[in-house]
Amino acid sequence: MTPEATAPLLLVEDDALLASTLYDALSLAGYRVDALEDGDAAFTRLATPDHGHALVLLDLNLPGRGGLEILDAMRRHDRDTPVLILTARGAIEDRVKGLDLGADDYLAKPFALDELEARVRALLRRRQHDDGTQLHVGALHFDTLTQRFTLDDVTLELPPREQRLLAYLMRHAGEPVEKAHLLEHVFAEETLGDNAIEVYIHRLRRRLADSSLTLRTVRGLGYLLESDA
């Protein structure tokens, strides 16, 4: 498969061994990759609107300026370039802050290279089809500014938790999302169990019934939102 990026990816990671491994894996996958290991250098590169990168892989714990400060500065002028944050497993507070500041997704270390490449592909595909404020999956549309869902041109009224869950699944349409991933990304600040996720998934399935959308369970992988249209 030809990579979706035409501009180079930017890898910001200070662990030399990990950075080398990621650089080699992404290069072998066909991407052009620029690499930085210092937070100050990354801040300077990304603080300008013409940084020229298709996607940023950003470690949070960097020498010099930290990843969250870099992300905050970048999002002041660039809200479109996808950012995938790389963070230590268990650092939930940093992950939540990163997502709140505008990161598109995260990976907790250690992670499989196949998963990294899948996330990169998904984020680049999403960038091609979204204008930054509109999400589309078949006949389902979501305006991120008004927080309004429409299905077959009819407004879809959802409670807040279902709104957040469906919006996240739309951002990851076409790829399975694990239940644990939903708990960490969508409901990180709430105490919810696995059963609660299943209840919300069931409710969303009922709301999407009789449409071209399906929300199915992929055994061992998670929940998959896709359109038959």
UniProtKB/TrEMBL annotation:
Keyword terms of this UniProt record: DNA-binding, Phosphoprotein, Transcription, Transcription regulation
GO biological processes: regulation of DNA-templated transcription
Residue ranges annotated for the OmpR/PhoB-type domain, each copy included: 132-227
Span of domain Response regulatory: 8-124
GO CC terms of this entry: cytosol; protein-DNA complex
Segments of the chain annotated as binding DNA: 132-227
PTM sites of type 4-aspartylphosphate: D59
GO molecular function terms listed in the Swiss-Prot or TrEMBL record: phosphorelay response regulator activity; transcription cis-regulatory region binding
Classification via InterPro entries: CheY-like_superfamily, OmpR/PhoB-type_DNA-bd, Sig_transdc_resp-reg_receiver, WalR-like, WH-like_DNA-bd_sf
One Pfam family in the UniProt entry: Trans_reg_C
Protein name per Swiss-Prot or TrEMBL: DNA-binding response regulator
Species this protein is from: Chromohalobacter japonicus
